[in-house]
Design a protein that fits this description.
Residues 825-899 form the Alpha-L-rhamnosidase C-terminal domain. With 933 residues, this protein is of the alpha+beta class. The protein has 5 domains: 12-150, Immunoglobulins (Immunoglobulin-like); 161-357, Jelly Rolls (Sandwich); 361-474, Galactose-binding domain-like (Jelly Rolls, Sandwich); 480-823, Glycosyltransferase (Alpha/alpha barrel), CATH 1.50.10.10; 828-932, Maltose phosphorylase, domain 3.
């Protein structure tokens, strides 16, 4: 094996977002994916071998974290053949090539995305250092630059102190309205030694901001992530070493309400209430002389409720009185004589875990496209885009002047805000000026879903520069792109991006504007799959799976909403079934079998629960709660003014889903080492298929009531007998083309499967028609009527406002999956894109697609165009992967790659030629294919 000299390029990231290695404060999060960064420049055989650090590896409370690296090379057909990992307790030992914690030795393996730490037991609050050497079929790398991760607090006793807060109402609170003011806590400390390392661990519920010497620690907002706090509490970790560079320091924490203090408690049977805000924090310090100290929150901390944040909650907004600002409250020397001592309070009850998903962050600023005076001293601000976040305002005026900002997604015909679809959410921020110089303000503990803002009471003229819109969502990188020759397809993709980003709020909420904002399982069985092509959301959905598992009842029941902030356990298949589907999606996209292993027992228990409770004597699962939720009215006028909040339960849907999930569980049992279960699941599925056809199949060639959704489920799930497929396919086409006039008629259930079902039937042209329609009902109709995200309802412009969000994702269904897998040809065949299937659907009116997706192995790109009979396809395949590429061509001899015939290209394997397609297999690298078709 040839030796390769190298240079090193270490990149620190949080979920793919680059962070300066010299930043004063770094947020430490728990991640399942660690990666090390390695570059190599040497012999021509491998002129650029590089591994990129995928996520910030500090603060991990997993005892066996997953180590991954990403190889980049301009040479073709690069495959890893082996690796060697060293993990050490100090950088000095690692530099001496001593893996005192773990020396994997040279292991023959092509695995570069899921190597689990298998060394000595790790200790809480310790730094771990590691590096890797890789071997490829093109050469061998030197040792990489070192990387490290910090082990979090592994055990409950590591916290070793009690929670503090104020359990009760104060004069600053509005008990009748259910509003609490923010709680402020502070503590001053002296240090006589030089600090080598300081790490802050904090749990602040519902939401917190941490300050040291008046400076906010970190750039996260609305932290920590939402959970059912009786089951699970997330802690955040910060490196605060560089903030503690003196002999005296002041520590401060502001607590907001979040979901912990439920703003409306009039329905305790429905809405979970956890109590008053509280916190526990410790800062672990190592001095340069080797001694250690831990600072804890205790009853010597001082606190007050009489600060400028008069009230705050997610739904109604924030009221801030700048006249009550506590100037210098988090700095040394502040007079807190009137403050109270903090009191010890009851702990939340849930397990303490490091937060594996990124916190939310201000990800982008938006400038208004217009500011319009609307009379009575009011202004309407239009940002041109529906999004989630808040407004950062600059203002100057007299003390006591109230500026009120009201938020909405759209306008009435007279130009006023349309707010009827917000239900009980007030969606209003109020700022009271202290007076004097220019003041700048933005809220801390609320967010809004909006495009428009009404400003009332603003002193002087409201100008655009004084109202910056701030887009807020979980700090994750966009890893996919899509552009095509069809402008409408591109706009739908853009709307989808904004809608998905807007609804990432540490859980996948349904909508960001009204008094709901819940993580409904039924919204994302396949939509989540499509989202993975746009965002680096793996840890986000791993966290959500844990929320679902923890919400499961002892008897096996799974709720419709998780975390179960609403106590909705309606026992149906289509909503809780998302638990299995998201787990399957994560396994497919990441190759991490632990995801299935962790959740297999809970999934199996739920499947048994539903079978025992709801299967009748004829083998049918009788319980369905919602039916094909929000199916479109037959015409736009038929649905005018009517509420979509109607349920049409259908045992065909529940039985079809149970069959689909039985087959999924059979696969899971094999992957997770539960092979003894496979035969049982397969036998149950075979019987259910017979029972399903006996009950629901009609000899005229359709299922159930002959709806589009019923027939599509039978087709896609493989319930239809082989001899009936053609007839069923004809029925589906007839419904779309003749009965629906070329449109879909599916609700949230059917839309999850429609695009791929039609494509698998050989009717990608019909799927394309559905995707590019501009008349009702369609995604294009939404855009034609002003949508900049995705509506909750197909008839969102005429439906009753009670349930009519203009920023939802559930109706995306499998559209984005179809974009990337079928139009762009980027599909994983096995092991998280280690084998890629690139097969394009040739659609007459689509002439070009340019798309990319950053898999765990690296970037995959697919850019094709055609003109007349000429087809051009540029492809990039990452190192350590292979692709099966289907080239449209009249015959093999018409295909060239980089100007040479593929028959004479040793980098390309010719597999077969059939039906106008030539199947090739290629390794990593960049390729330029030309053909005639």
């Amino acid at each position: 094996m040839r030796s390769i000299t190298k240079t090193i390029d270490l990149i620190w990231c949080i979920d793919g977002v680059l962070i300066s290695a010299f930043s004063h404060v770094r947020l430490f999060l728990s991640f399942l994916f660690l990666c090390i960064s390695l570059s190599a420049f040497a012999q021509p055989s491998v002129d650029a071998l590089r591994c990129e650090l995928l996520s910030n590896p500090l603060g991990i409370d997993k005892t066996s974290p997953r180590l991954s690296w990403q190889i980049q090379s301009t040479e073709r057909n690069v495959m890893q053949t082996a690796y060697h990992i060293l993990v050490a307790s100090s950088p000095e030992k690692l530099a001496q090539n001593s893996g005192d914690l773990w020396d994997s030795g040279k292991r023959i393996s092509d695995n570069s995305i899921a190597v689990f730490y298998d060394g000595k037991a790790l200790e809480s609050d310790t730094e771990v250092y590691w590096k890797v050497k890789i071997y490829t079929n093109k050469g061998e790398s030197d040792w990489s630059a070192p990387a490290s991760w910090r082990v979090g607090l592994l055990y409950y006793k590591d916290w070793n102190r009690r929670w503090i807060g104020f359990d009760g109402y104060f004069d600053s609170d509005d008990k009748e309205a259910g509003y609490l003011s923010a709680r402020y806590f502070r503590k001053e400390m002296s240090f006589s030694k030089e600090i080598k390392q300081a790490t802050a661990y904090i749990m602040g519920l519902g939401l917190y901001e941490l300050y040291i010497d008046g400076r906010k620690v970190g750039d996260q907002v609305l932290a920590p992530g939402l959970t059912d706090y009786t089951k699970n509490v997330k802690y955040n970790v910060f490196d605060v070493t560089k903030l503690l560079n003196g002999s005296q320091h002041a520590f401060g924490v502001i607590l907001g309400n979040g979901r912990y203090y439920a703003v409306r408690q009039e329905k305790p049977y429905k809405v979970k209430h956890f109590g008053f805000p509280k916190m526990q924090m410790q800062i672990r310090i190592t001095y340069t002389d080797g001694s250690t100290q831990t600072i804890h929150t205790d009853d010597t901390w001082k606190g007050t409720t009489d600060g400028p944040i008069i009230s705050n909650n997610e739904y109604d907004g924030e009221v801030y009185d700048a006249r009550k600002e506590l100037n210098g409250w988090a700095r040394i020397g502040y007079d807190d004589a009137t403050w109270m001592n903090a009191t010890y309070v009851q702990e939340p009850g849930g397990n303490y875990d490091a937060q594996i998903n990124s916190n939310m962050k201000v990800m982008q600023d938006l400038q208004p496209v217009s500011v319009t005076a609307s009379g009575n001293g009011k202004y309407i601000i239009d940002y041109g885009q529906n999004f989630t976040g808040w407004v950062k305002m600059r203002v100057q005026g007299k003390s006591g002047t109230e500026v009120i900002l009201r938020f909405a997604e759209s306008l009435n015909a007279d130009g006023s805000l349309f707010r009827d679809n917000l239900r009980a959410a007030r969606a209003t921020d109020t700022y009271i000026l202290k007076g004097g110089t220019t003041e700048e303000w933005e809220p801390r503990f609320t967010y809004h879903g909006f495009r428009y803002v009404e400003v009332e009471g603003y002193p002087g003229d409201a100008v655009a520069d004084n109202f910056v819109g701030r887009l807020v969502y979980d700090d994750m990188e966009t890893i996919g792109s899509f552009n095509s020759s069809n402008v409408l397809l591109n706009q739908i993709h853009r709307n989808a991006w904004w809608g998905i980003a807007s609804n990432y709020k540490s859980i996948p909420v349904d909508c960001p504007q009204r008094n709901e904002r819940q993580a409904w399982l039924g919204d994302r069985p396949v939509s989540a799959y499509g989202e993975t092509f746009l965002f680096d959301n793996t840890n986000f959905y791993i966290k959500w799976l844990e929320d679902i598992r923890l919400s499961q009842k002892e008897d096996g029941a799974i709720p419709d909403v998780a975390p179960a902030f609403w106590r909705y356990y309606s026992d149906n298949m289509t909503w809780p079934g998302t638990y299995l589907m998201v787990a399957d999606m994560l396994y497919q996209q990441t190759g991490d079998v632990r995801i299935l292993q962790d959740h297999y027992p809970a999934m199996k228990r739920w499947m048994h629960y539903m079978r025992a409770r709801y299967m009748d004597d004829e083998g049918i699962i009788t319980k369905d709660s919602y039916g094909d939720w929000c199916a479109p009215p037959a015409t736009i006028e038929e649905g005018r003014g009517k509420s979509a909040d109607k349920k049409y339960p259908n045992p065909l849907l529940s039985t079809a889903y149970y069959y689909h999930l039985l087959n999924m569980m059979a696969r899971f049992s094999e992957h997770t080492g539960n092979e003894q279960d496979r035969a049982g699941f397969e036998k149950a599925a075979a019987k259910m298929k017979k029972d399903f056809n006996k009950r629901f199949y009609h000899t005229d060639g359709y299922y159930g009531n002959n709806t589009m959704t019923e027939n599509i489920l039978a087709m896609y799930f493989g319930l239809v007998e082989e001899e009936h497929k053609t007839k069923l396919g004809d029925r589906i086409v007839t419904i779309i083309e003749k009965e629906n006039g070329g449109h879909l008629s599916t609700g949230v259930v059917g839309t999850q499967w429609v695009m791929r079902t039609l494509t698998d039937m050989g009717r990608a042209d019909l799927a394309y028609k559905l995707a590019t329609n501009t008349s009702y009902p369609s995604w294009g109709y939404m855009i034609e009527n002003g949508a900049t995200t995705i509506w909750e309802l197909w008839n969102g412009d005429t439906a009753h406002p009670r349930m009519n969000s203009q920023n939802h994702v559930m109706m995306l269904g499998d559209l984005l999956v179809w974009y990337y897998e079928n139009l762009a040809g980027i599909k994983s065949k096995e092991n998280a894109f280690q084998t890629i299937v690139m097969k394009l659907e040739q659609i007459k009116d689509l002439n070009a697609v340019n798309a990319s997706y950053r898999s765990l192995y690296g970037a995959i790109s697919s850019s094709w165009k055609r003109k007349n009979e000429r087809f051009e396809w540029n492809i990039t395949i990452p190192a350590n992967t292979r692709a099966q590429v289907y080239i449209p061509a009249k015959e093999l001899r018409t295909i060239t790659e980089s100007g040479k015939s593929v028959t004479a290209n040793g980098d390309i394997q010719i597999i077969q030629e059939q039906n106008g397609l030539v199947l090739l297999e290629i390794g990593s690298g960049n390729y330029q294919f030309l053909s005639k078709f």
